[in-house]
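Quick start: what a row looks like.
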Amino acid sequence: MYLYEEVKNRIGSKISSGEYRKGDQIPSEMELAKRYNVSRITVRRALKELESDGILQIRHGQGTFVRNEENLNLRMLNLRGFSELETREKVHFKRSIISKTIIKDKELDEVFESDFEDEYLRLERILQDEKNKPRFKDISYFPMSIYKDIYDKITANISTFQLIKEEYNIKFDHYSKLISVIHDPQVNIELKILPSEPLIFVKKKIYDEKKRVIHYSTHYLIAKEVTFELNSLQFNE
């Protein structure tokens, strides 16, 4: 885990525990750097990540504040997985496994840029909130050549990202996403919404430090519950 990720998680934990509440101003970059014994650059990166995830709001000239938003919006463009969604929303989510199968698929061989016909664990899940309301559907694929014996290690409430990092010692480097608006009556039934409601469909690839595709997933989100936020670091006219 990178240093800025540790700082990010520690700040996120304070928000989750209620030490920093909605609308509160958190300590300055300098104070946080001293507290966690890191550079201000590391703190700044952590704060930027939390802002992108919709947890913090950086107000130039004023400071950094915990977002004061009552509505549950899924800012999925920046989220890494279920666990991060729980941390950001301060809500416990239930993961239900719909299916878990070993498959072969030539299209997946292309996605993972495999030179041979590999086998893949296909994991299909629904995420529900504390009221058992479905929030979104997730289908993930794991190459068995990379993740040996992963089938038996995945249970309903385990964090697959944490499993990848801790059991297989793989670090995520970057990811790419393709996003579209679709209609899928079957998914709408699973998410318990009207057949006419649109869905946000996301295809995500995650790469490791060697630029290998080490995780591929598709997500179905209820369109009206998704907030799109695009940030620019600099604007030049």
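That is the whole record. The helical segments are 3-17, 29-36, 40-52, 82-89, 106-111, 150-153, 160-167, 185-190. Residues 82-225 form a domain with the Chorismate lyase fold (CATH 3.40.1410.10).
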